[in-house]
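Continuing the series of single-chain predictions for the mutant panel. This is the parent chain; the variants come on the following pages.
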Amino acid sequence: MVNSGLSTLDTQLLTHKVVVTGTRGIPNIQGGIETHCEELFPRLATKGFDITLIRRKNYVKDQLTSYEGICLYDLPSIRKKSLETIVHTLLAIWNAKWKLKADIVHIHAIGPAILTPLAHMLGMKVVFTHHGPDYDRAKWGKIAKFVLRLGERTGCRFANEVIVISNMINETIRRKYKRYDAHLIYNGVPDPVIIDDTSYLYEIGVEPQKYIFAMGRFVPEKNFHTLIQAFANLKQHEYKLVLAGDADIEDNYSKELKRLAKNNGVILPGFIKETRLQALLSHACLFVLPSLHEGLPIALLEAMSYRLPVIASDIPANRPVGLPEDCYFPPDDEMALSGLLEEKLKSKLSAVTYDLTNYNWETIAEDTALVYKKIMNINAHAKNKY
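Parent structure:
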């Protein structure tokens, strides 16, 4: 029964069930899409939307059935890179229709988007968020890259509404698929939480303002091996390198990366969130994002929100944030990164104020809400930014 105190708009929203898939899950699960979903969907729930987010059971370490106003629904998945996403998405869409009675499926990322037609066949509308061309990631072989490209094409051609997180992605889908009505809605960054307590820093063996910080998954396209080697070239003992994160599934690359880090004195705190991560961001002297591939990097935005000096690889995804030219280095160029690190560390590093207006989560939630209202045929029109 609908509460009689609800407005007509609230009633309209609650009569439409939105199911989210394409993410490993929330809360506190590693990954850019996971962070995106953890920030976005609780905000949409406060706006009256009935949202269920489907999680992959093998990544979940809690017994939660809800989180900040959204329902959580766990399904099993195969712990194998080539099959995990497609199998889980198939189960998710089937359950969205028959168990969860979804009206709308919101699919994140191009891999899961390959099943957009199935959602349509089952009578559901689809919102597809394109987070980046995952087929450019080094970890995928030829067959996987083909499937990912097919997922991108399928999502862009058959989704009722498409959301893109950067101008670069928007231009790509216009050129390749003639999809001109996508909604440009950026990734966001929450307000920083400054942690004055430095006990965690000393616990892992670093001092405030005496360490370089980087974070992300231990996969080849994050290019942390180049960062470690560039740092080792400095041959100095005043500063340390802290590399937070881990692999989703341990493989030869992640094992070798950890060995390389250990041999060069790099500190590996593992995958961290909340207070520990906030402490490291609060007291770093420099942040480095050496990636070869990104969509719109939340990690970089987080570092910028803490006003950290940053160094980033010169790839298209890192350009829109508007860093000064001397903050970029040629991707995968170890010596160039070493030189830039040395230059920055010798200079007087101080807090930097960045313009993060476009990356406000409240605005992002409002824009996404307009997309939902449009697909629900409620009296609202989604904004397009071109």
